Amino acid sequence: MPAKKKSSNKRPKKIQGKLKETEFYCVSCRKRMTSIPDELGVQTFRLKGRNARALRGVCKKCDVNLCKFVKEAKFDKLKDKYGTWR
Ligand SMILES: [Zn+2]
Are 15 and 21 in contact (CB under 8 A)? Predict the structure, then answer.
């Protein structure tokens, strides 16, 4: 039996250009926003049986928690810089 295909016309818009280190895509503002510097930190968690690494922050404008995945190579550098999130 063929699987039903979900319509894919509700995809989130791609962000133009590269995000800066302290920039995130805020789902509330629906655009790229900078985090409150004091709220930045790294976090690791399990995702599909793997360790995932993320940088987290809080939107300057609307106080919503922000999150973006980071590469392992960059993670240690970010941890030294910002510490662990909360
Ligand atoms: Zn926001």
Answer: no
Q: Which structural domain range is residue 34 located in? A: 23-82
Alpha-carbon gap, residue 12 to 17, rounded angstroms: 15
* Cα of 40 from ligand 1 centre, angstroms: 14
- What pTM value is reported for the model? 0.78
Asked, for residue 14, whether it belongs to a domain, the answer is no
In-domain check, residue 35: yes
Nearest to 79 by CA among 46, 44, 28, 51: 44
Q: What is the pLDDT of residues 32-71, one digit of tens each?
A: 999 999 999 999 999 999 999 999 999 999 999 999 999 9
Count of domains for the chain: 1
Task: State the distance from the centre of ligand 1 to the C-alpha of 13, rounded, in angstroms.
Answer: 16
Looking at residue 17, what is its pLDDT? 84
